[in-house]
Amino acid sequence: MRLKISLLKEPKHQELVSCVGWTTAEELYSCSDDHQIVKWNLLTSETSQIVKLPDDIYPIDLHWFPKSLGTKKQTQAESFVLTSSDGKFHLISKLGRVEKSVEAHCGAVLAGRWNYEGTALVTVGEDGQIKIWSKTGMLRSTLAQQGTPVYSVAWGPDSEKVLYTAGKQLIIKPLQPNAKVLQWKAHDGIILKVDWNSVNDLILSAGEDCKYKVWDSYGRLLYSSQPHEHPITSVAWAPDGELFAIGSFHTLRLCDKTGWSYALEKPSTGSIFNIAWSIDGTQIAGACGNGHVVFAHVVEQRWEWKNFQVTLTKRRTMQLKLLSKTLPHQPFGYPEVRNVLNDAVDLLEFRDRVIKASLNYAHLVVSTSLQCYVFSTKNWNTPLIFDLKEGTVSLILQAERHFLLVDGGGIYLYSYEGRFISSPKFPGMRTDILNAQTVSLSNDTIAIKDKADEKIIFLFEASTGKPLGDGKLLSHKSEILEIALDQKGLTNDRKIAFIDKNRDLYITSVKRFGKEEQIVKLGTMVHTLAWSDTCNILCGLQDTRFTVWYYPNTVYVDRDILPKTLYEKDASEFSKNPHIVSFVGNQVTIRRADGSLVHISISPYPAILHEYVSSSKWEDAVRLCRFVKEQTMWACLAAMAVANRDMTTAEIAYAAIGELQIDWEKIKAKIEMEITKERERSPSGQSSKNIGLKY
Question: Which ranges carry the IFT80 second beta-propeller domain (predicted)?
Answer without folding.
Answer: 336-605
